[in-house]
Amino acid sequence: MGARPADARLEEAAGLARALDLEVRERQIIVLRKLTPATLFGKGKVEEIAALVEIEGLDVVIIDDALSPIQQRNLEKACKAKVIDRTGLILEIFARRARTREGRLQVELARLTYERSRLVRTWTHLERQRGGFGVMGGPGETQIETDRRLIAEKIGKLKRELTEVRRTRTLQRSARKRAPAPTVALVGYTNAGKSTLFNRLTDAGVMAKDMLFATLDPTLRSLKLPDGRSAVLSDTVGFISDLPHELVEAFRATLEEVSEADVVLHVRDIASDESAAQADDVREVLSRLEVELDDSRILEVWNKADLVSEADRADLVGYAERARPPAVLVSSVSGEGVADLLAAIAQRVDESPPMDVTTAAGDGAAVAWLYQHGRVLTRDDAEDGSVRFSVSLSEQALGRFEQMFPAAALSR
């Protein structure tokens, strides 16, 4: 499965299992010379797995691959244990972790979409039970049609609800744009340290654990930039290789925050040997979501610098300075590099050239507004109480300032 080393994939699968509070008792890499349609593995390997399940008294067998419904059923029959494939495993984690209404809707839609495909295939052997009399089919066909219809109705209802959620989120984004605060989105491979960085930047109490998919629901918080200006920071669900297509579609609404953001922080676990491969996986999922990102909007955050040796850290600092897209080396645990990251974010959201703004004496509200929504470069206080600024403002911020403080003098 992909170019990633098998042992790295195995360790990741074990991490997914632990995220479900499962105790991993055995793990092994199985090399397939050819695929067996009925069970994926050959007869001898299936018997070996079944014997291991019996000897160890195991309850669950996890296959880090996609299983057809028939393969899953046959393996469960042979092993006399629950068999879960990669998609089912990730769906189960998401179902346990989602907290917000939107998160639960998205997970339920993904689960039903997954189950629908398995229901259709699992029940095909009952199609032979047609016959009966008149227009009514046999009991098997009736059951298939009933189950298909019920799932289709549930999926339709969930899609309508998610459409409403998407509309609400679009309105919320529009409102944020009217109050001209730039938006910054965090993306990254699961367990890259996004939530820990989110907490470090915003003093939020977001769940942050050394666990795959610790964060599922989108979280928004205010971020203070070095010049006092505010931005909106959003944390998103972690990405993973071979993300089930059901989840890619289900989480499209959540990840729209990324496509709308002024700056996207791609958080990478730079201490991991898999950092480059994980970064490729993130880009691949974004591509599947048709999220177009150019270097002008992306800033890579090379996280977990505290886990890198001093010698390697010095090399990474040099690499980061030459990287494209640009990169900043940080430790969200110790705070190392966070000030540099904030400065880099502030620099990227200031696209407009500076202009001169003069406020009247005693107009403290205008002064405070400029510090909050713009980047003040210089300030000169005159004897008459007026204040002259050189300040960088986005076009939205400039328009809002002119409406709110018409008495201020502006010149480019």
What sort of overall outline do the alpha carbons produce when their principal axes are compared? elongated
Number of domains: 4
Amino- and carboxy-terminal Cα gap: 57 Å
The stretches of 5 or more residues where confidence is low (pLDDT under 50) are: 120-138
Amount of helix: 40-55%
CATH level-4 homologous superfamily of the largest domain:
P-loop containing nucleotide triphosphate hydrolases
Give average pLDDT, whole number.
81
Helix-strand category: alpha/beta
Order of helices and strands: HHEHEHHHEHEEHHEHEHEHEHEEHE
* CATH architect. name of the largest domain: 3-Layer(aba) Sandwich
The count of strands amounts to 12
The fraction of residues assigned to DSSP E strands is: 15-25%
Radius of gyration equals 27 Å
Largest sheet: 6 strands, mixed
CATH topology of the largest domain: Rossmann fold
Count the helices. How many?
14
Which CATH first-tier class of the largest domain would you pick?
Alpha Beta
As laid out across the biggest beta sheet, the strand order is 4-5-3-6-7-8
Q: What's the SSE blueprint?
A:
Blueprint: H1 6-19, H2 43-56, E1 60-63, H3 69-79, E2 82-85, H4 86-97, H5 101-122, H6 139-178, E3 183-188, H7 194-202, E4 219-224, E5 230-235, H8 245-250, H9 252-260, E6 263-269, H10 275-288, E7 298-303, H11 310-322, E8 327-329, H12 338-349, E9 355-359, H13 364-373, E10 375-381, E11 387-392, H14 395-404, E12 409-411
Parallel strand pairs: 1-2, 3-5, 3-6, 6-7, 7-8
Antiparallel strand pairs: 4-5, 9-11, 9-12, 10-11
Helix pairs in contact: 1-4, 4-5, 5-6, 6-9
